[in-house]
Amino acid sequence: MVAFRTAAEYIVAKRDNRPACLILDLILPDLDGLEIQRRLTGSGAPPIVFVTARGDAVSVARAMKNGAIDFLIEPIDYSQLIADVELAFREDLRKRKELVETRSLLVRWQTLTPRETEVFHHTVAGLLNKQAADELGVAENTYQVHRGRVMRKMKAGSLAELVRMSTKLEPILQRPYEEDSVDLYLSTEMASVEPVHERAYTLPGTTTRQAMAARPY
């Protein structure tokens, strides 16, 4: 477990590569818990479990709509907290795996030449080779050569797999300033993380020792 006295401390802290969970209070010295949750959205931060002494229906609704795992009001059921943390760990692991896969996909995408990029888009659009070649102003056999290179560079075993890759890439490539979108994604979503000191502790009512981020007291 790593404890942070303020939201600012947590926001500037670096993560290691282990699954994590952020246990967050609504009231902190510098920022409201819901505001922290909003700022962390899309930053690669771990899933959040709110634990607070004071909560209202509006805060609960906002927290859950913004993706919180749970919202617990003290006194809490520690078995529920453990279940929430374990769920958060699984969710964080899933998201981090997706990010790693996306990064690998983007690295492969960046190896495509401008012509191969055009061929990629025409291929996943479902155009026949002759149609795509005509639109690009090249011979059909030339298009097929480029298409083969695209498949090899992207490590796609089939057209269906290439289309799935396109579906994953599309939200990133269509961001504003498209030419910089890949580099921006890699520098924000996939920022490197460094090891931090960890404190393991045992939650009341269990012998299981867990490592997790904690809300400040």
Describe this protein's structure.
The chain is built from nine helices and seven strands. It is mainly α and 217 residues long. The protein has two domains: 2-102 and 193-214, Response regulator (Rossmann fold), CATH 3.40.50.2300; 110-188, Arc Repressor Mutant, subunit A. Mean pLDDT is 82; it is low at 190-217. It is elongated.
| Sheet with the most strands, sense and barrel status | 3 strands, parallel
User: Going by CATH, what is the homologous superfamily of the largest domain?
Assistant: Response regulator
CATH class of the largest domain: Alpha Beta
Head-to-tail CA distance between termini: 13 Å
The residue ranges in which pLDDT falls below 50 over 5 or more consecutive positions are 190-217
How many strand segments? 7
Order of helices and strands: EHEHEHEHHHHHHEEE
Strands side by side in the biggest sheet: 2-3-4
Q: How does the SSE layout of this entry go?
A:
Blueprint lengths: L1 E2 L3 H6 L9 E3 L8 H8 L7 E5 L4 H9 L4 E4 L4 H32 L4 H11 L4 H8 L3 H15 L4 H15 L4 H11 L12 E2 L6 E2 L2 E2 L3
Parallel strand pairs: 1-7, 2-3, 3-4
Antiparallel strand pairs: 5-6
Helix pairs in contact: 5-7, 5-8, 6-7
